[in-house]
Specification:
This protein is mostly helical and 138 residues long. It has six helices and two strands. A two-stranded antiparallel sheet has the order 1-2. Helix 3 packs across helix 4 and helix 3 crosses helix 5. The longest helix is centred in the middle third of the chain and has 22 residues. It is globular. The mean pLDDT is 96.
């Protein structure tokens, strides 16, 4: 399993003097994709909804990383870095990383999902987005 130091050494997480300029755009994208995920669940497009929900989560996560002055080049390393940079919220980031794995299985392995699972994912993404906005407001 990849560790934080490995992510840094491989350039998957790196410092950037311009990262903080991208926070607002990433939050806006998180909100946009969450709205699309909600619309897709209304028409029983479960897999599409879950993929969009993950994309929302990804952008909220990137906003947190950008806020700390870093860029990412790996979905895996993104969540590893957040656990290091915001240790008091590590359990939330660990739960979010499970959504990353589920998204991978839907997108690359053809896994089907159901409305109940998507509902759980949407709740987590909403919680994650609210926490991201709270952390960024301080």
């Amino acid at each position: 399993m990849m560790e934080y130091e490995g992510c840094i050494q491989k350039g998957m997480i790196k410092k950037s003097s311009t990262a903080q300029e991208r926070v607002g755009q990433s939050l806006a994208l998180g909100d946009k994709f969450l709205k699309s995920a909600r619309k897709n669940i209304e028409i029983s497009e479960n897999e599409s909804s879950e993929l969009l929900a993950y994309t929302s989560l990804f952008h909220y996560a990137r906003a947190l990383l950008f806020h700390k002055g870093y860029l990412e080049r790996s979905h895996v390393c993104l969540f590893i870095a957040l656990q290091r940079l915001y240790p008091e919220h590590a359990p939330l980031f660990q739960r979010a990383d499970k959504i990353r794995l589920e998204r991978h299985n839907i997108q690359y392995c053809g896994l089907a999902t159901d409305a109940e699972s998507v509902g759980f994912v949407l709740e987590l993404v909403e919680e994650f987005g609210a926490k991201a906005k709270e952390l960024l407001a301080h």
